[in-house]
Structure formats: structure tokens, C-alpha cells
Design goal:
two-stranded antiparallel ribbon, 5 helices, 4% strand, elongated
């Protein structure tokens, strides 16, 4: 196993696991405040898709050399991830949770409606490219596009009454 690839993969796995824990805590808190979930039916498929993506990275990329330019792009994406998470704070979750309050309009949400989805699109491409896995980037970009179509449609429909 290449040390660089191993460190990169450990980072991705630990990041995603920690995000699932944060999302679970935030979801419970939001639901206790009167929030409700929409689009729950597609959530298991989304989790399966992302888990399979990570599994492909680990299985097929563990002995890959790091593509340093792609790693630099990935690091930039992580700065965007931090900005998004900071803007949403306790409202960030992996599910579509609707809280009957005004939408977040700070941070990247001043400029884009769904910066987190743009980030995920980029990560699904960039992370495999760090490991030279072009085919993983292509396959999961297509799968992610289909998933985001379903998710984006459900979220936009649910959020439309809350847009000012």
C-alpha cells in the first residue's frame, strides 16, 4: 500500500464517518425543533452509492501513486466544505430536513442555492483522480447525477415555500 494513498483514503473514510455522526446529531436536534424530512425514500440508495464509491477508492486505489495536482484540487474542495459546514452550522445534515425558519443566506449560500451539491459533484470526480481512477470518477459522476436529480427535485419542492 502506498503511504500517500493510504493517508488520503484514511482521511476520506474518517471524514465521511465523522460527518455521518454530526449529521445524525443535527438531524435529531432539528427534528426536536419541529423540522421534518422529505425525500427519505432515496436516502438509502444515496448512502449505498457513496459507500460503494468509497469502497472502490479503497479497493482499487490503495496502491496508487498520488496525483499531486488533483490532491491540491481536493484540498481546495475541503476548504469549501469547511465554509459550507460553518455556514449551515447545526442545520447541516446529510438528509433533506426542512426547518420552518428562514433559509441560510450566509457564506457560500449568498451566492449559490446548493453549494454542498456542487462540492459533492466535484469530490466524486476529484478524489478518484487523486488516485488515477478515471473510470471510478466517470461511473460515479453518472450515478451521482441521477441521484442529485432526484434529491434536488425533492429539496427544491420542499424549500420553495421558504424562499423569500
Amino acid at each position: 500500500m502506498q503511504t500517500g494513498a493510504a493517508l488520503f483514503l484514511v482521511f476520506i473514510v474518517l471524514q465521511r464517518l465523522s460527518e455521518l455522526m454530526i449529521a445524525r446529531i443535527n438531524t435529531r436536534r432539528l427534528m426536536a425543533q419541529g423540522a421534518y424530512e422529505v425525500g427519505a425514500g432515496h436516502y438509502p440508495a444515496m448512502v449505498l452509492m457513496h459507500s460503494t464509491w468509497i469502497l472502490c477508492l479503497v479497493v482499487f486505489g490503495h496502491d496508487s501513486a498520488i496525483a499531486w495536482g488533483w490532491l491540491a484540487a481536493f484540498i481546495v474542495l475541503q476548504a469549501l466544505r469547511i465554509w459550507i459546514l460553518a455556514a449551515l452550522g447545526r442545520r447541516w445534515t446529510t438528509r433533506i430536513i426542512i426547518l420552518p425558519q428562514p433559509l441560510v443566506k450566509r457564506g457560500p449560500f449568498r451566492y449559490l442555492r446548493h453549494p454542498n451539491y456542487m462540492l459533492v459533484v466535484a469530490e466524486v470526480i476529484v478524489a478518484p483522480m487523486v488516485l488515477g481512477l478515471v473510470w471510478v470518477a466517470v461511473i460515479f459522476t453518472v450515478l451521482n447525477a441521477a441521484m442529485l436529480y432526484v434529491r434536488f427535485t425533492a429539496e427544491e419542492r420542499a424549500l420553495s415555500p421558504h424562499r423569500g
